[in-house]
């Protein structure tokens, strides 16, 4: 897995997590959460950035029809709430815990901005990350609007291959060991679990992939 704590030679965890600094050790701890707890809601004050130490976090919003729209599911090594350093005063999304034992490190937007001022290389990397996150979300929303479910699934699997995949030297296939359940994948591509199962079976029959619980073998 490619952890987002790292951008090339920049270790985000060492830079961003306050408990890594001696002066903060006495006052800092990871915040623990249980499944289904919310870390923040839409319209909450945006004054912190969060780093996932363990577990899984769901980001999303409620649309005008009262339906929940999931924009991302994040795992260990990823950050969220980053729009707090871009001038956002109120949250435009919620962050909900998906697994018991989830823990996060939080850092105030003031601390984060100070880190950005002190570390030019880090500043460039973090803004590049934010741009990548926005671009990825925009791409996913475009797929939801204009592409069929099967195309959305293929695009999502390609994203997983880039982030979690490696090439098996014997078979030449891409092996993807990912952290998502089938229910979460269905949510992220905007379809139902039964429809996802049908699509997976179709792709299996087409010899496009082999789909297991925690591993996808991409053949094309």
TrEMBL record:
GO annotation, cellular component aspect: cytosol
Record domain Cyclic nucleotide-binding: where: 12-91
All residue ranges annotated as the HTH crp-type domain in the record: 147-220
Keyword DNA-binding: yes
SUPFAM superfamilies: cAMP-binding domain-like (SSF51206), Winged helix' DNA-binding domain (SSF46785)
Gene Ontology molecular function, alphabetical: DNA binding; DNA-binding transcription factor activity; kinase activity
Protein name: cAMP-binding domain of CRP or a regulatory subunit of cAMP-dependent protein kinases
Organism: Flavobacterium haoranii
């Amino acid at each position: 897995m490619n952890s987002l704590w790292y951008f090339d030679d920049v270790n985000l965890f060492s830079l961003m997590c306050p408990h890594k600094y001696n002066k903060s050790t006495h006052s800092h701890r990871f915040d623990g959460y249980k499944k289904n707890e919310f870390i923040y809601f839409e319209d909450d004050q945006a004054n912190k950035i969060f780093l996932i130490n363990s577990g899984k976090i769901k980001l999303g919003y409620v649309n005008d029809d009262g339906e929940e729209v999931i924009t991302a599911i994040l795992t260990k090594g990823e950050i969220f709430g980053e729009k707090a350093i871009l001038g956002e005063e109120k949250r435009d999304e919620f962050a909900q815990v998906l697994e018991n034992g989830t823990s996060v490190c939080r850092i105030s937007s003031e601390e984060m901005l100070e880190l950005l001022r002190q570390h030019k290389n880090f500043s460039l990397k973090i803004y590049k990350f934010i741009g990548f996150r926005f671009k990825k979300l925009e791409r996913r929303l475009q797929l939801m609007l204009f592409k069929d479910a099967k195309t959305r699934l293929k695009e999502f699997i390609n994203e997983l291959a880039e982030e979690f995949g490696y090439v098996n030297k014997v078979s030449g296939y891409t092996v993807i060991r990912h952290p998502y359940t089938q229910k979460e994948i269905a949510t992220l591509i905007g379809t139902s679990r039964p429809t996802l199962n049908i699509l997976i079976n179709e792709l299996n029959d087409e010899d496009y992939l082999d789909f297991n619980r925690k591993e996808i073998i991409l053949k094309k």
